[in-house]
Design brief:
This protein is mostly helical. It has 16 helices and no strands. The protein has helices at 15-44, 49-67, 71-85, 89-112, 114-124, 129-142, 146-161, 165-189, 193-215, 228-231, 234-265, 270-306, 310-346, 350-383, 386-411, 413-441. It is globular and about 60 Å long.
């Protein structure tokens, strides 16, 4: 167990420590797009369009459903990290059990409710009869590991809080690696088609959850993990529910902003829509790189909060924020320099290339204006300031829509991009305004 005695001198905050937390997350994120490309590529070898559409559609539906439980990772980092910083080994174990209970209940609920959930998904995103049939085959297989898939969020949160991000990297690598290998075997070797891709993912998710549990075995050394009066303590469950609800509401508003950006962009025609989609991939690259340092902020701030050490909160914020600025500055420079080449690699249509170049400078600006928002997210998650995150996101949400309604009629697609960046700036400014209160509350 890596919880510490709050009376003992804390481990030094160094750049090496920040990088040790951040870099494995950056590397694990790099494996995510590879898996999606392989799954599509494998079914593409079948020589039919319907299997590709079915795998893509099924993956999007389940990813969106599982995304709802993303609060479990963030909330677990905060609660476990603060317990570790306070030296409360028993709560470090108990919080993992609570998170796994939420994952189990959530996963079983999805299995029980799968028919109406998938029906609603197809109503929102209708497809041809063939694609829908294949997608249902895919979904009805994959849904059975919903508890394991959601549990990975909880296990990842616990490992990040304990600064075990190398273990997170191995969980991600094994899950994606097993998935890729078995997809080749089941689809190209056994000829199982779309169900083969689903079965490969089921096995990979189960193995990922199992490996995650093994990496978290230190939590099960102490009997507190199964001390049910402690685990089910009302005050702690309420604390967990409030934090997770606030994070969920904040994340829902953020998802609506990004989803609406795609839908609103469609008003300007297929070429502009495609150009926007190409450029938004640049933002995902930045987010993957930034995640590592935002995770570092989460765990270091949580531990400083657990120690009730405002000075350490400030130093953790400054150190991780500095690295965040380096990443954002580097990606902005890279987009300015290599953006046209990247656009040509991602899109072969000449019209799409030309339009994407026209809007490229918005993506050069995005990392620079979004850096504060991304890093403050990590800081506020670590401090468990879910209410601030929810409220400041609500302000940003309103300002985004005001910008959309004002700027889109005047500037077209440029106005849509401007509105998105307005939401980034608003989040950074509003969370920054709340930061002094966060620091004071640590004392």
């Amino acid at each position: 167990m890596e919880a510490v005695d709050p009376k003992a001198p804390p481990a030094p905050l160094t750049h090496k420590r920040v990088l040790k937390i951040a870099l494995p997350i950056v590397l694990s994120n790099a494996t995510v797009p590879i898996l999606g490309a392989v799954d599509v590529g494998v079914v593409g070898q079948m020589g039919e369009a319907a299997p590709i559409g079915a795998v893509a559609m099924g993956a999007i539906i389940l990813t969106t459903i599982y995304w709802i439980f993303g609060f479990l990772r963030m909330g677990t980092v905060s609660l476990v990290g603060q317990a570790a910083g306070a030296g409360d080994d028993n709560e470090v174990s108990a919080w993992l059990t609570r998170a796994l209970l939420v994952a189990g209940v959530g996963g079983v609920s999805l299995i029980v409710m799968q028919v109406p959930i998938f029906w609603a998904a197809f109503q929102l995103s209708p497809a041809s009869a063939e694609v829908e049939s294949l997608t249902r085959d895919y979904l009805f297989i994959r849904i059975w590991t919903a508890p394991a898939a959601i549990a990975v969020y909880a296990l990842t949160g616990w490992l990040v809080a304990m600064e075990r991000t190398v273990s997170v990297f191995w969980v991600q690598l094994v899950m994606n690696g097993v998935n890729i290998v078995l997809s080749f075997v089941f689809v190209l070797g056994f000829g199982w088609g779309v169900p083969g891709v689903a079965i490969a993912t089921v096995i990979a998710e189960a193995m990922g959850a199992g490996l995650g549990l093994w990496f978290c075995r230190a939590a099960f050394v102490r009997p507190a993990w199964r001390d049910w009066p402690r685990v089910l303590r009302r005050a702690q469950l309420i604390k967990m529910a409030l934090l997770n609800t606030d994070i969920l509401l904040r994340s829902a508003m953020l998802m609506i902003i990004f989803s609406s950006f795609v839908f609103l962009g469609a008003r300007f025609g297929d070429v502009t829509l495609a150009a926007n989609e190409v450029l938004i991939q640049f933002m995902y690259i930045t987010a993957y790189a930034m995640d590592g340092f935002a995770f570092a902020a989460e765990t270091l701030i949580a531990r400083a909060y657990g120690r009730k050490d405002p000075a350490r909160v400030r130093r953790s914020s400054l150190m991780t924020g500095m690295w965040g600025m380096v990443v954002c500055g580097t990606t902005a420079f890279a987009f300015a320099l290599a953006g046209p080449w990247l656009i040509d690699v991602m899109a072969k249509d000449v019209e799409v290339q030309m339009v994407a170049r026209e809007y490229l400078w918005w993506m050069v600006a995005a990392p620079l204006v979004g850096c504060a928002a991304w890093m403050f997210d990590g800081i506020f998650i670590g401090a468990g300031r879910g209410r601030d995150m929810r409220n400041m996101m609500a302000i940003s949400f309103v300002l985004y829509w005001l910008a959309v309604l004002t700027l889109m009629p005047l500037m077209g697609n440029h106005g849509l991009w401007a509105a998105l960046l307005v939401s980034f700036i608003a989040r950074g400014v509003t969370l920054g305004a709340r930061y002094p209160a966060l620091e004071r509350a640590a004392g």
